Amino acid sequence: xxxxxxxxxxxxxxxFYIGAQSKKDILFTVANEPVYKDEFTRVFNKNRDIVAEENxxxxxxxxxxxxNYKLKLKQAYDLKYDTVASFKKELNSYREQLIIPxxxxxKITEALVQEAFERSQLEINASHILVxxxxxxxxxxxxxxxxxxxxxxxxxxxxxxFEDIAKEYSEDPSAQQNGGNLGYFTVFDMVxxxxxxxxxxxxxxxxMPFRTQFGYHIVRVNDKRASQGEVEVAHIMIKENPTxxxxxxxxxxEVYAKVKQGSPFHFLANLHSDDKTSALNGGALPKFSANRxxxxxxxxxFSLKEVNDVSQPFKTVYGWxxxxxxxxxxITDLESRRTELVQKIEKNERSQRxxxxxxxxxxxxxxxxxxxxxxxxxxxxxxxxxxKMLDKELFxxxxxxxxxxxxxxxxxxxxxxxxxxxxxxxxxxxxxxFKANLEKTEVDFAFTMQEYKDGxxxxxxxxxxxxxxxxxxxxxxxxxxxxxxxxxxxKKRGDVILASCTVxxxxxEVQSMLASGKSLDExxxxxxxDPIIHVIFTKGILEENHKKFPKKFSLDSxxxxxxxxxxxxxxxxxxxxxILPSEPMQFxxxxxxxxxxxxxxxxxxxxxxxxKQYPVKVNKKLLKKMMKQNQN
Length: 632
What we know:
By secondary structure, the chain is an alpha+beta fold. The strands form 6 sheets. Strands 15, 16, 17, 18 and 19 form a 5-stranded antiparallel sheet that branches. The longest helix is centred in the last third of the chain and has 30 residues, at 443-472. It holds the Pfam family Rotamase_3.
């Protein structure tokens, strides 16, 4: 989710209340415009349902936030932000997405859900050959491509190696490397027409030619296997060092040895992994299916059999890894996956099937009056006469007229026959009419559109009033930094070496050798007992109280620390080479923090101005009553 969508989700939900409401229901006014109790209550309850218990706010606290929200919204509409072209374009784009569920036939959707679930039980390994066909190819070019794919199929069927033919004829660029082999995939991984061909082709057989948006294909199914589902793993990754080709391999082997000796995986991941994001969570990664990771990583992850199994070190393009199996997620029952499958179908081209059924129902429910004479002129392709009647009404849908000129423009450049063009055009107009009037027929849709509209308006207004100003007004930003420089201070830091050991006696030995000035290589040569690794070192500059420091360690003096037992069979020694004292941050270093704080100040000042511009009056009697009810 991008920043804009995230912030829109976090904005208060603005909802209009349908029905008669008395003045007694007015909770507050902004410049004499009423905001009703029901609207606020709906928003209050909705937000309380989606936030953690410790973050829940009282009615009074929510009211302050909601008043501020309404003040900003009032200014956004007064400044006519809702008339800006870019705003209208984005709002319409969101509307098109929101409409999708209303354009599907429930029976057909259910059939597609069943099909998708059944296919999800299998993974298919297939190879293909593609002969490209442009979307607007002429009939002659389309026929030429079809003849070519037929010839290619005959070569394969007659015994020529599929891989060789793919490399020679396929217009899929990857065929030169993989011989047309796409590896294993499952439902939703390919375009729907390709998926259909693959699932309906027997293993070791070659399909008849079929067409997708890319052109004509043939597919050979190499294997079908039960779906492996998804796995949840943790990993430790060591990036390769450009100046030391053996560094990454050596260190991952040391870490692996520590794991085999019983050191906690999560502890080692946090201490050593170069994947900083997962390291904070003990190396844990979100669950994934076999084809969602690079093959070299996925193959190892799925090869692990039992929970807590750990792989041997292996290499990918990202570095060296070891992987620990946390949990296997086999394919579950249909009901537990229904919501996920419906959402995927709605975003997939297969949803067009359900859409076609909806259009037919709409055509039967709407009053459609056609001008039969104009229709016949178009079907007979009488361009000369049609061009004389461009302003005539071709048909009406519930009284709303469509002119001949619209059909003529729609038909330009289309290669299909006139009847197909006419029928597809009238279906399109029926769909357009339905979509244009959806707010009038679907209350939930109308609510949601208003929510998004207000959120998008506030995003644009905040951009101009707060965010952009804080980033671009360098003079004001520098001035804010100067006035609040005591807030921006670097913590005390240490240039340190951390030694992690599995045995207390070895940790004591390491402590003594660090204190005597021995090099790390010298210490490892003495302490480690091939193949057993007793010590791993980590070097760097860490802030005081950094997570990598032992819990009881205090960055107070240069030298070698005591031995700290962090986990069972994990002992840590810290050698502090240098202490960097706390010091004021330079503006360049603090800029990100300053921008954030300056934005908060700008918004506070802005709210003060808005309250002066748009007087707010709260119905205190009603508020008191609501607070009492909320306590009960």
